[in-house]
Amino acid sequence: MHELSLAQSLLRQLHDLAAQNGAKRVSKVTVEIGPLAGIVRDSFEFGFTTLAAESPVTHGAALVIKTSAPEYQCLDCNHMMPASLHRPLNCPACQSEMVIPNGGSDIVLLQVEMETADGS
Amino acid sequence: MCDTCGCHSPSDPLIVEVNQSLLAANDEAAHANHHRIEAMGAVGLNLISSPGSGKTTLLEKTIEMLGRDLRIGVIEGDIETELDAERIRAKGVPVVQLTTGGACHLDAPLVGKGLDALEGQLDGAGLDLVVIENVGNLVCPATFALGEHQRVVLLSVPEGQDKPAKYPGVFRTSQIFLLTKTDLLPYFDFDIAAASAEARRINPALQIMALSATSGEGMEAWFDFLRQITK
Asked: Domain total for chain A?
């Protein structure tokens, strides 16, 4: 249920952005959620939609979620491996098993689309 | 957009590129906590496990064993009650209870308040080890850095060896994996080697220790680890 906390912090940020930009409504929000972020996408979407409906500024805002697989790095020889959803079990360069993801756990607010005060 | 000069006309949507982590506020507070723990002269641990995996019992035994050599301070996280803090207080070390009032994890700003209260009890004295016992939950705490130096995940024998595979997030983000309650191995179908292999498949850099706070088996390795990181 930490998805709800994150949706809450997103909505706080959206309200701040709307106020800063003199916007009357947030229409579209784009977020990147890494596959290793430990965030259940459906729960996050549900939390966002529910909380967004509580304010006319965010009511009905579209939520776009992007995700991309992480690259991997060998801790022993620093060899980088291409992006994949599955962790390689061995480094192709030195055979070490010490292969860890580089990124993939980010939760980032990328872009916000707003309707300005006098717009349609 | 206006055709003449490219200015923003009122009917256009206003698009703002934000590119900011939703965890930015938490991470900032975690960074501050990290420095405050270091300013006390201490190393910080974040203990994460399901409810009932033995976090508080491990802490009690650790204080009994190391409390004379190391100055230990504890921050207890629970949804409700002071029960855990009372158990730790009985061991004679400074302790702060944080109650989240329903939230399933500690976050860095709340731990910052815990550090305020802990400092209040210290009266200017330093610490060697700050242990933050997270809310009993194997999922949500994994997402929130608290400012710890090492994240320790506990899994007890009765919970079953499939937990690393089922809850990979916390195993991926931890440095230490403690397999607890090994005195119960005769009564459960639990294979330490299989659980360790599964955890290493998720995080090959994990340091793994198997122990029982009740029988004392394996505890010396844990104490040595704590002596090492607080040197």
From this structure: 2
- The pLDDT, as a whole number, for residue A120 is 43
For A13, the domain range is: 1-68+104-120
> Does B10 reach chain A within 8 Å, measured CB to CB?
yes
Which CATH code, of 3.30.365.10, 3.40.50.300, 3.40.50.1010, 3.30.420.310, is assigned to B24-229?
A: 3.40.50.300
Task: Indicate if A19 and A47 belong to the same structural domain.
Answer: yes
Closest CA to B170 of B15, B46, B32, B20: B46
The interface predicted TM-score of the complex, written ipTM, equals: 0.84
- Please indicate whether, in this complex, the C-beta atoms of B143 and A21 are within 8 angstroms of each other: no
Do residues A80 and A95 lie in contact, with contact meaning Cβ atoms separated by under 8 Å?
no
Per the CB < 8 Å rule, is B17 touching A5?
no
Instruction: Assess whether A58 and A89 both reside in one domain.
Output: no
Mind listing the pLDDT tens digit for each residue in B134-175?
Answer: 999 999 999 999 999 999 999 999 999 999 988 999 999 999
Q: Which of A2, A9, A17 sits opposite B105 (nearest CB)?
A: A2
- Which of A17, A39, A117 is opposite residue B16, by nearest beta carbon? A17
How would you label B189-206 residue by residue, b for 16+ Cβ within 10 Å and e otherwise? Answer: ebeeeebbebbbebbbeb
Q: Is B34 on the interface with A (CB under 8 A)?
A: no
